[in-house]
Every structure is written in structure tokens, then in C-alpha cells.
Amino acid sequence: MKVLVTGGAGFIGSNFVLRTRQTRPDWELTVLDALTYAGNRDSLAAVEDDLTFVEGSVADEALVDRLVADTDLVVHFAAESHNDNSLDNPWPFMEANIIGTYRLLEAVRKHDKRIHHISTDEVYGDLELDDPHRFTESTPVNPSSPYSASKASADLLVRAWVRSFGLKATLSNCSNNYGPRQHVEKFIPRQVTGILEGVMPKLYGAGANVRDWIHVDDHNDAVVAIVEQGRLGETYLIGADGEQNNREIIALILELMGKPADWFEHVNDRPGHDMRYAIDSGKLRAETGWTPQYQDIRAGLAQTIAWYTDNTDWWSTSRAETEKTYQRLGR
Ligand code: NAD
Ligand code: TDX
Predict the structure, then answer these.
(1) Inter-residue contact 146 to 86 (CB < 8 Å)
(2) What percent of the chain has pLDDT over 90?
(3) Among this protein's residues, is 122 annotated catalytic?
(4) What is the pLDDT of residues 112-156, one digit of tens each?
(5) Dmax (CA) of the chain
(6) String of b and e for 156-178 (b: at least 16 CB within 10 Å)?
(7) Rounded Cα distance, 73 and 20, in Å
(8) Which ligand lies nearest to the CA atom of residue 178 in the structure?
(9) Which residues, in sequence order, are CB contacts of 57 under 8 Å at separation 6+?
(10) Does the annotation mark 234 as catalytic?
(11) Does any ligand 1 atom lie closer than 6 A to the CB of residue 36?
């Protein structure tokens, strides 16, 4: 099977490529990535000779048309992905996430191919801390930030193309990922690389916000399960029952890295900061038999910390750039 992986030089996409090279060696992979500040070709160095890499944008109509014509399946990870950036400058999110998805859908329709669209639990808005419910496939979209609104927009386009044109598509909405090769702007790598450089973790506001953490390999195994066993036209929520608040995550990182429990500081909160995400992944588990392999966040975090400790060249330049932006934003 020929598979076009968009955003394959980013965090989740590169881990998808590395993992499927192992688990699905018969897949022929082409990566399409614009190599924005978030893309890093070094993440693919180990498999560089075993794939085709195309630098370009999913919003480039002619390029997308040509690549989709020559594939069986598109796995669409490419996106602008950071909430804080979307609050600072929303336009790149509209172009990559909405227009880029539109271009792919039109090419997939024209050439009668299949697409799996990767999305996020953030499209459902947030939950109160004491809400007994979790997000399911029938939760209405209610996004809070320009990022999550752009992802919800893309999801709605995919669903409309399924209904109106019979497009061969599946969708998945996953909770917060962690693991190796995540950009240092994100919560966990920002704190881990900060500690490695002697900088205190930065907690937005009071830190009571809850995220439902999943290891990136578990997310990507679920994507493969959906591609192989999911029903066309369906949406699947992906989550590993990993709810933790931000204070708890910082406490765990500090403990694993041998720092005192109070060695962190509070910084300005994110405007419109979602309080809690929580995923019910019962449909995915029942239909595909998928279960997460990383049941223990402590073990997954220890592996992640070891990776950042061993790969300072991968992150040191982008960390310096990222922290300049955070300084400007007061976070
Ligand atoms: P990332 O920012 O690490 O990687 C995004 C990649 O897309 C980068 O390599 C970037 O160069 C590329 N890209 C950006 N704009 C592009 C364009 N116009 N054309 C081609 N390539 C472009 O993001 P990530 O965390 O790996 O997220 C990947 C996908 O998973 C996104 O769709 C995101 O919404 C979704 N998602 C992420 C999480 C998470 O916790 N990180 C959770 C659920 C869903
Ligand atoms: O320095 C920080 N301090 C802090 O307290 C940073 C960078 C973040 N935070 C908080 C904000 C959130 O409550 O940590 C939590 C996680 O923040 P992010 O890593 O920015 O993730 P989030 O906003 O939850 O979105 C992530 O999950 C859903 C991904 O970035 C999205 O791409 C995905 O769709």
C-alpha cells in the first residue's frame, strides 16, 4: 500500500513514520511536510533512505493533486498545532488546517483515494473539573481557541465530504500526546528541557487544568488500527484514561529529574485556557481491540526525559527561539 503522510516531520507524524517502518514494513511511505518551525527532518534520519520526502504545503493545490494521484491512502497529520501561537497570530492556522485539509479532500475525491484525518479532543471545548461525563463521538463541537476552531472546521469539512460525496474517509480525535520528538514549545518538553538547562518549570495560572495524556506510540497504533479495521465515514476518539492536572505532571517531572517538589514558578495564564479534556475511547476499543501499551505515565515520562537528555542537539536551537517568544508573551 502506498501511504502519503502529511506532517511527517512533526512530532506525531515522525513517530508514526518510525513506528510503521517497524510494524508495517510493506507500506511505501511518502512524507509531505512544509518544514515550518515545527518540522524537523532530523526526526526521520533513521529511516531517510526508506521513504520519499517532499518539502511543500498541503495548501499547494497542484502539488497535493500530483501526490494524491499516486497514493492509496493519505494519513493527514499536517497542521499548525500550538494554541499559544494561534492566540498570537491565527492566520497560519487557517491556511494549514482549513485550506490545507480542503485541498487534500478535493484531491482524494478527484482521484477516488482514501484519507484518515487526524484531529484533537480540543474541538469539543472543555469540561468542568467535576463533570462526570467524558467526550464521546457524539459530543457537539465547541472549540475555544483559533487553533481548536481551525481543527473543528477541518473535521466538519471531512464529515461533509463523506456525506455529500461519499468520500472514503475516517477521522480520529485524540487527547494530549507526549513522548520523544515533541517540539519544545509544548508543556512537557518545555519543562524537561528547561530543567536540563537549569530553568524552573513554568506553570500557567494555578495549574489545576487537566489533560488526558497518551503516549505518542499508543496514538499511532490506534491510527493504524482505524486505518485497517475502522468503518469508513466514522469518527473514533483516542485516549488512554490518562487524566492528570498540570501541577501533578510538573511534580512527577521534578521527582524523576531529582529536583525539589517546589522548584517551579507560576506565570501568566493562557487567555481562554481550557480547564479539562477527558476522552471515552470505548468505541475504538470495542471495534478494533486497541488498548494502550503505556499504562503507566511515570514510565512513559521517564522514557521521554531520557530521550531529551540524550538528544540535546535536536532541541537546543529551537528551545532558544521558543523561549524568546514566550518571553514576549509573558509566559
Ligand atoms: P507538530 O506541530 O509537531 O507537527 C506539525 C507538522 O506539520 C510539522 O512537521 C510542520 O512542518 C507540518 N506542517 C505545518 N503546516 C504545514 C503545511 N501547510 N503543509 C505541510 N506540512 C505542514 O504537531 P503534532 O503535535 O505532531 O500534531 C500533528 C497532528 O496531530 C495535528 O493535526 C494536531 O492537530 C493533531 N493532534 C495533536 C495532539 C498533540 O497532543 N500534539 C493531540 C491530538 C491531535
Ligand atoms: O509552559 C507551559 N506551562 C503550562 O502550564 C505550557 C507550554 C503549557 N502549560 C499548560 C497549558 C495546558 O493546560 O499545560 C497544558 C498543556 O499545554 P500544551 O502542551 O500547550 O497543550 P494543549 O494546549 O493542551 O494542546 C495539546 O493537546 C491537544 C496540543 O498542543 C494540541 O496540538 C493538541 O490538539
Answers:
(1) yes
(2) 99
(3) yes
(4) 999 999 999 999 999 999 999 999 999 999 999 999 999 999 999
(5) 58
(6) ebbbebbeeeebbbbbbbbbbbb
(7) 14
(8) 1
(9) 34, 63, 96, 100
(10) no
(11) yes
Query: Whole-angstrom Cα distance, residue 264 to residue 257?
Result: 13
Distance from CA of residue 151 to its chain's centroid?
11
Residue ranges covered by each domain of the chain:
2-183+213-240+279-294
Distance from chain centroid for Cα 96 = 14
Q: How far is the CA of 78 from the centre of ligand 1 (A)?
A: 5
Q: Could you tell me which CATH number the domain at 2-183+213-240+279-294 has?
A: 3.40.50.720
Closest Cα to atom 10 of ligand 1: 39
Amino acid at 206: A
Q: Element (H or E) spanning 65, and its range?
A: helix 61-69
Share the mean pLDDT of the chain. Answer: 98
Amino acid occupying residue 151: K
Collapsing DSSP to helix, strand or coil, 56 comes out as coil
The cell numbers describing 10, all together, are 512533526
Sign for the pseudo-dihedral over CA of 45, 181, 152, 325: negative
Show Cβ contacts of residue 161 under 8 Å, excluding neighbours closer than 6 positions: 105, 109, 167, 169
Close Cβ partners of 88 (under 8 Å, ≥ 6 residues apart): 325, 329
User: Is 121 labeled as catalytic in the residue annotation?
Assistant: yes
Residue with cell 497560519: 92
Residue 34 Cβ < 6 Å to ligand 1: yes
Q: How many helices (H) and strands (E) does the chain have?
A: 12, 13
Distances in whole angstroms, Cα of residue 144 to Cα of each of 86, 93, 102, 130, 151: 11, 14, 22, 19, 11
Return d(Cα 74, Cα 115) in angstroms, integer: 5
Q: Which of 14, 43, 12, 41 is nearest to 29 (CA)?
A: 14
Minimum-distance ligand to the CA of 41?
A: 1
pLDDT of residue 295: 87
Distance of CA 119 to the CA centre of its chain: 8
Global pTM?
0.98
Give the separation between CA 229 and CA 225, rounded to whole angstroms.
6
Distance, in Å, from the CA atom of 201 to the CA atom of 68, rounded to the nearest integer, reads 43
Residue with grid cell 495549574, as numbered in its chain: 207
Contact 80, 7 (CB under 8 A): no
- With a cut of 90, say whether residue 321 has pLDDT above it: yes
